[in-house]
Design brief:
The chain has 6 helices and 3 strands. It is mainly alpha-helical. Strands 1-3-2 form a 3-stranded antiparallel beta sheet. The radius of gyration is 19 Å and the shape is elongated. It holds the Pfam family Rrf2.
């Protein structure tokens, strides 16, 4: 199963944009991510809807960060990306009437809900400025 790297990729893009003056075109971002500019525009749409970035068309246009990195958390970006699945594991659905499957699913749901709550709390505590401060430039 392929892992979803959208969150990590968008953190990468936003921090690069900030370090390079806060602006970048879809083409530049696409080159950075080795993808298509259409994919970039589609992915950035969620960030735009939340007011984290804006886009301007035409010559000299592109994407611009609207908020300081200190005001954006990893959870903010995760939420703007429509909250991709955090885990590849899921509860069984083969025999919903089976008491063993029900008990197993109850246990798994509890563990996964607790893990997700912990991850969300941690993501909310990390700003993009925190991440950017770890970048070593030469």
């Amino acid at each position: 199963m392929k892992k979803d790297s959208k969150l990590g990729r968008m953190l990468h893009v936003l921090i690069h944009m900030s370090l390079r003056g806060g602006r970048a075109t879809s083409d530049t971002i696409a080159q950075m991510l080795d993808t298509n500019p259409v994919v970039v525009r589609r992915t950035m749409a969620g960030l735009k809807a939340r007011g984290y970035v804006a886009s301007e068309g035409g010559h000299g246009g592109g994407w611009q960060i609207l908020r300081p990195l200190a005001d954006l958390t990893v959870l903010d970006i995760y939420s703007a990306l429509d909250e991709p699945e955090l885990f590849a594991i899921a509860c069984a659905q083969d025999h919903p009437g089976c008491p063993v499957e029900q008990a197993s699913n109850t246990a798994l749901r509890g563990v996964m809900e607790e893990a997700e709550a912990t991850m969300r709390t941690r993501m909310a505590s990390i700003t993009l400025a925190d991440i950017a401060s770890e970048v070593v430039t030469e």
